[in-house]
Amino acid sequence: MNINPEFTPKQSETLKVLLDHTNGINEVLFGGAAGGAKSFLGCSWLNLGCLTFPGTRWVMGRAQLKNIKDTTLNTWYDVSRLWKLEEGKHWTFNSKDNIIRFKPDYGGSSILLKDLFQYPSDPDFDALGSLEITGAFVDEVSQITLKAKNILRSRIRYKLTDFCGSCAAVRLPKLNLNNDPPTWVCSTCGETTTGLVPKILYATNPSKNWAYDEFYKPWKEDRLRESRYYIPALAGDNKYLPDEYKKTLADLPEGDRQRLLLGNWEYDGDQATMIPYAKIMDVFVSRISGGQRFISADIARQGRDKTVVGVWDGFRLERIEELAKNKIPEAADLIKRLRFEHKVHWDNVCVDEDGVGGGVLDLLDDNAVGIVNNSTPLKVEGEKENFGNMKAQLYFYLAKYINDGKIFIRCTPEQREIVTRELEVVKKRNPDQDGKFYVLQKSEVKDLIGRSPDYSDMLAYRMYFELANQSRYV
Predict the structure, then answer these.
(1) How far apart are CA 61 and CA 53, in angstroms?
(2) Do the first three CATH levels of 9-157+198-243 and 277-471 match, i.e. the same topology?
(3) What predicted TM-score, i.e. pTM, was given to this entire model?
(4) pLDDT by residue (tens digit) across 427-472?
(5) Which CATH class is domain 277-471?
(6) For the domain bounded by 9-157+198-243, which CATH number is listed?
(7) 205, 257 Cβ separation under 8 angstroms
(8) Partners of residue 313 on adjacent β-strands
């Protein structure tokens, strides 16, 4: 086949890095403004992999399979048409198993469309357990979790040692009989190689998630690890982008204009946001002393959410435990066990009393505190805000304490990602309107992040004891 695709300079730079299996780079982020032709690049990378390495398997991933079919797959069709790759002649697509298959005469490789959303029913991505692939392109990685990314990376192992990493030739039997390391000499170029490096390409618009932490920020500070590569992509880099589309981006509200036109990763212009991203990052490294011990717990409702229990030393959150799909006695037993292990007084234990939380509270000591989110706020001396309910008051003070550097959280990397995402969406409702102060409802947060904010609710409940102490003097 004679394919001569045209790429922008940024796309060419990215592909050069991806196709070089001697540079030690295995993760590449192509991200920035809208219109940078990120999806076009990713689909081109998949096709090049399929046609260069016969019989290989690749993943086209995104947070929702429906979004892949509605957007990224359509871009793949556009790329294939430009390259004169015809359905039926060069490739087929099965909409039931969601696999693009190249014909045997054109390499016989395949592209698997994969839903990478972290569903509560499969938090560990067991659905990807038996997957073996050669490489992957993940579109809009702002919508997937760090765990999803890491699990997918761990599946890149298929036929890597069947090709020369220098010239892409099919390997001959390796000459190192000891298999330590599994090097072999390519009969085409004569280079000694271990085969292909597992490579994955990510695409995204600016977002404060793991892409910011692992790629953009280290790149900006000139400390990006050697196995990673970041290429900023702006609308102006794409000479094929219509001028009218650029005008549309320029007319967007300021926050969207900063992100989607200017590719600004640092912009925090949402007036509803209560905790800046930088302040959220500080809670994981803050140096504060301990104090009295407390336990705060958010109880799963009807088995759909998680029960999350936190053990506090003053405002140092030292331990987080969670239960999935638990029953009322199990949640109560966890709280009792943690209270005993950490010597917490019953009057320093609180649980949300909404829904099944009331049942858990009934199984605890009478001195444990029940919190009703929609109840009347506590009266605190000097307080100026007019809170609509208890939940708004607790979240207001949680945000204040985090912004003032008064909270520390010790947790696993997976828990850190959850906490970060949930604190990012601690927002005021109707910030431009006068009246009582409210935060987003649980259902609204679920729409934004795809799950219940169980961790941030647990954090907010800790503030009850601080407010209760102040309210005693009113």
Answers:
(1) 20
(2) no
(3) 0.72
(4) 988 765 557 889 988 888 887 777 789 999 999 999 999 998 876 5
(5) alpha beta
(6) 3.40.50.300
(7) no
(8) 293, 316
